[in-house]
Each structure stands twice: as structure tokens, then as C-alpha cells.
UniProtKB/TrEMBL annotation:
Keywords: Oxidoreductase
Alphabetized Gene3D superfamilies for the sequence: 1.20.1260.10
Name this polypeptide is given: 1,2-phenylacetyl-CoA epoxidase subunit A
PANTHER family recorded: 1,2-PHENYLACETYL-COA EPOXIDASE, SUBUNIT A, PHENYLACETIC ACID DEGRADATION PROTEIN PAA
EC number: 1.14.13.149
Length: 331
């Protein structure tokens, strides 16, 4: 309906067709879009949603593992876990900052999270029952995060793509520390090996769900690919993850809990069984095993941190007043 050659034809959002074409041409030429550039409203909204959800996932993701810091089996394990959980907090902060460049405030995003309105990765709504879960999370959850995030280093939006470069370096340490925990347990006593297998059994399917619905059911997929926010589809990334992870499980003698898992010579990848999408949607909609606890824990941490925010604001106000006073004195 806009292709009648009319100059200045408008789309539904009131954006000029020529503007959208120019924007798409920049994307196609692999130019980075920066915060002060003009961009379609849909592009801005998609990024705010995606970066916001990503930031929340980092922050909520600190909870299941934070739960084990005081119970880590050795000082070395404790130091590694502490560093990892702090990294996740840092990832959240970069990402909130990246989202803020698009005109949304961190306070607003935090409020939405605490009100239970914002989405975050549903993997963090599962409980961490044993120490082996810390291994499984690092290996599988951070492993899946890397698959998702490496292509985001080439995302068309400059601040997001640059944040991802450092984030990915840290994720790779997270994945290795998790895998190394699993390797140690798998080579330990029979109880330890069983504990590792049990953690793999519980985390495998939720990890596959981290890539989101199948491409045929994915709402935002095509447009995000055209805008080069996404570079690969959900199913492509999931397949890569399975292909990379199965040999790692074999190497440490653990079994992937999927009777349908089979190497497919033709596609040079593994075929795997059906994902329980009812479970996925149940957890996404707030009814997973730990949804309520996670938000309650975030609210508590937010309330307990109020004095830090007040002190930081009071300090900033004092500095501003001092700078103002010395500016006046200098005049
Ligand atoms: Fe992270
Ligand atoms: Fe991580």
C-alpha cells in the first residue's frame, strides 16, 4: 500500500518510507547505529525490550547462584563463584546503561522488574538444589548465553554490540568454571557423579528453552534479523548449542537426558527430542518453581539497598553544590 511511488508516504507509525529505506540501507551496509542517530520507533522499542530483558536476566541470574556462595565446597570454588556472580551484576549494569541510551531510565526498568511486569530469562526460575547445579548452570546456562551473545557482538546497535564484547569474554570464564565443576564431580565418588548427572537431567531441557520458541512461533524474529539485531534464528542457535554440548557431556561420561538424541550425518548435527513448550510458557507466565521467590528476593535487596542510593544521591548533590560554589567564586 506504500509502493505507489508517493513521495513522503507514511507508515503506520508516521515514519516516512524514504527514511525507513535509508535506515535499512545503513543496516545493510553494516553501519553501527548510535544513540544520537535517527532510528525507527520500532527499532528503538525492540532494543529497549531486548536489552531491558537481558539486563534483568543478568541481575535475577545472580540469585540462584548467590544462594551457594556461602556453601561452596572450597575456598577456590568460593572465590570463582563470587567473581562469577559479581560479573553478572556488572553485565546487568552495562546493559541498563546501554538501554538508557535509547531513552528509558534505569529506575523505570527496575520498577517494572520489581512489579513483576518485566520479563527475564525463565531459566532463573528453577531452583539450585545441590552444588552440582552450580556446575550445570555455568556449563549449560552460561554456555547457552554465549551462543546467544557472541552474534550480538555484531548487533547493529553500537552500545549493545560493544557491551557484548566484554560480556562474552566473561561468559566464557563462567562456562569453563561450570564445566570444570561438572568434570570434577563426574570423576569423583559415585555419589558425586550421580549428583552431576541429576543436575544435568534437571537443567538440560530448560537450557534448550533459553533460545526461545521455534522459529515458526517466534513473534519478533524476522524483523530483528532484518535490522541485524539478531544474526541467527532461535532454532539455529539451539542446534549449535546441542552440537557443541553433547561431546562435552560424553567427554566427562555424563548422559544427556534425551532418548531421541542422535547424530544426523546428513545435517552434520544432532537430532533431539521435542521440547515441552507447555512448561516453557508456564514458567514465562510466572508459574515456574521459583518465580515468586526471585522477585521477592529482588524486592528485598532493592529495599535494603535504599540507603546506598540515598547516600550516593546526597554525595552527588554535595559535589554539585561545591562545584557550583567554586564556579561562582571564580567569576
Ligand atoms: Fe552474564
Ligand atoms: Fe555468565
Amino acid at each position: 500500500m506504500y509502493s505507489q511511488g508517493l513521495i513522503g508516504a507514511q507508515t503506520e507509525t508516521g515514519e516516512d518510507e524514504a527514511f525507513l529505506e535509508r535506515f535499512q540501507a545503513r543496516i545493510d551496509a553494516e553501519e553501527k547505529i548510535e544513540p544520537t542517530d535517527d532510528m525507527p520507533e520500532g527499532y528503538r522499542r525492540t532494543l529497549i525490550r531486548q536489552i531491558g530483558q537481558h539486563a534483568h536476566s543478568e541481575i535475577v541470574g545472580m540469585l540462584p547462584e548467590g544462594n551457594w556462595i556461602t556453601r561452596a565446597p572450597t575456598l577456590k570454588r568460593k572465590a570463582a563463584l563470587l567473581a562469577k556472580v559479581q560479573d553478572e551484576g556488572g553485565h546487568g549494569l552495562y546493559l541498563y546503561s546501554a538501554a538508557e541510551t535509547l531513552g528509558v531510565s534505569r529506575e523505570q526498568m527496575t520498577e517494572e522488574l520489581l512489579a513483576g511486569k518485566a520479563k527475564y530469562s525463565s531459566i532463573f526460575n528453577y531452583p539450585t538444589l545441590t552444588w552440582a547445579d552450580i556446575g550445570a548452570i555455568g556449563w549449560l546456562v552460561d554456555g547457552a548465553a554465549i551462543m546467544n551473545q557472541i552474534p550480538l557482538c555484531r548487533c547493529s546497535y553500537g552500545p549493545y554490540s560493544r557491551a557484548m564484547i566484554r560480556v562474552c569474554k566473561e561468559e566464557s570464564f563462567h562456562q569453563r568454571q561450570g564445566y570444570e565443576i561438572m568434570m570434577t564431580l563426574a570423576r569423583g565418588s559415585s555419589e558425586q557423579k550421580e549428583m552431576a548427572q541429576d543436575a544435568l537431567n534437571r537443567w538440560w531441557w530448560p537450557s534448550l528453552m533459553m533460545f526461545g520458541p521455534h522459529d515458526t512461533d517466534s513473534v519478533h524474529g524476522d524483523q530483528s534479523m532484518r535490522w541485524k539485531i539478531k544474526r541467527f534464528s532461535n532454532d539455529e542457535l539451539r542446534q549449535r548449542f546441542v552440537n557443541a554440548t553433547v561431546p562435552q557431556a560424553e567427554f566427562i561420561g555424563l548422559e544427556i537426558p534425551d532418548p531421541d538424541l542422535k547424530w544426523n550425518e546428513e545435517k552434520q548435527g544432532y537430532d533431539f527430542g521435542p521440547i515441552d513448550w507447555d512448561e516453557f510458557w508456564r514458567v514465562v507466565r510466572g508459574n515456574g518453581p521459583m518465580n515468586r521467590e526471585r522477585i521477592a528476593a529482588r524486592r528485598k535487596a532493592h529495599e535494603e539497598g535504599a540507603w546506598v542510593r540515598e547516600a550516593a544521591n546526597a554525595h552527588a548533590a554535595k559535589r554539585k553544590a561545591r562545584a557550583e560554589a567554586s564556579r561562582i567564586a571564580a567569576e
